[in-house]
Amino acid sequence: MHIPGTYVLTEKRTIPERLLLLTGPIGAGKTIYCKQFFEDGIFDRDYCIYISSNLTNKQFRAQFCNIESLKLIQNSKFINPYLYNITQGKQRIDPSISPLVHDNKTSSEVEMSRGVNGLSLTLAEIDATLAMIKKLAGDSELNTNSSSTRNRGIRVVVDSLTHLLTLFGEDAVLKFINDLSFLLRDAEAMAIFTLTSPVSNEYLINHLSSIFDGIIEMKIEDHHGTLTRSIRLLSIKGVHAKPSWICFRIADDGSLSFVDESSLVTCTLCGKAIMGKPVLDSDLSFDSQTCLETYKKLAGVYGSNISEIGLPSEVVNVNFFFIDIVSLSDPSLSVKKQIERIGNLNKMISSCETYIKTPKDKIIVPTGDGMAIGFLFNPQSPFQLSVELHRKLRIYNSGKPDGDTMGVRIGLSSGPVFIVKDIGDNQNVWGPGIILARRVMDIGDSFHILLAERLAEELIALKDEYRTTIRYVGDYQIKHSQRIKLYSAFSKEFGNPHPPVKVVDQFYRYECS
Fold first, then answer.
1. CA 319 to CA 322: how far, in whole Å?
2. Cys bridge to 269: 129, 194, 295, 339, which one at CB 3.0-4.6 A?
3. Is the pTM of this model over 0.70?
């Protein structure tokens, strides 16, 4: 017999009859998977039993409307344990008797007995059905002119255990599953039981694991607005399985298709398999619109041959603080003095509160005459570090002669970058986020704190104080004819209130032309 996706899950065409537990979150596709398993059984001329406590007979028939009605009636059985429970409850509870006590039992005990009775009647119905199938198979063996039931397989679906547990309680359901498992094994049936995950009850998990022969897991993920579903056979008795995730899709008609990720189209930028519908640009495919836009930015900086570069797979958005020391390469400064200034700058930055408070959530890239620090989460961190450093610099420069003071320029930006390893196996970053921070810094003069548009507008929207300290300077054309909107942060305590010389010069050049 087989289950949907047998070959991709096990690399086998069939598997032995087993009792399988199918787990996964809401929306992962458990019911659709069981529906496919059930329909495959009908078309393979197996006898199929469907057990569900949250479907009516009418809903069951509607769920399998693509199967001919007569074939569905002849080859399947639908059982709702809760309907038995309602019927028995009406018969047993006399409204004239106190609702709190019945036959010397509390109301909770009455409810439990009703639940056990409803599940017991379900077991009796299944046992009778299995006996009927066995009798028909025996009769067909005696009748050499008939082969309609010979070697007939049996398939059972219980969807879902989660709903049964809610209705009947843990003890009653565990007894039901255990008793049912013996009936199904004796009949050599293949069965799938569904359970919504995650399940925090370890007692329940341990008991279920001891009953079932195998576990199938499902998961659902959001890939840039597109839901993708995956499945894996975690384990099964008597079958070697590689518990690797396999992507599957649900067609409009409810049928399943399983896709080996190695056969999927990969994103031109990040190299990941495209699970959903690809974003196309010319003859290139991308996992998302973000990847496409990042690719275009990189192509603007590095040229159209960017697709030929082996790109790393992890893309993250980082908030950058990029700094260097003004005029550090001045020939009048000795190498000793240059080293001293770099050391002093490093000490001041490392003593800033923002730097100390984020020991793990940052990436540091030394640049010789300065450094780039990428903050992974808080967009305020680069700005706050700039302000704290300027205050320390003003104290450091106070009372020193002009030749001994230290000036810095800072560029702030946020954007996507790749996490990469350099030749020394150290963590590094590369991409438009850090490149733009460097470009912005290069525009500034001593004590400028300049910001790219995206980060500036994000901060301005956060707090009123940013609206008064972060101000638009103007547009500026950087390399590769890319124009950016530039902002400057300053107050009496930090920053440089004058527009950068480069911005003023470029403005006059445009005016004169």
1. 10
2. 295
3. no
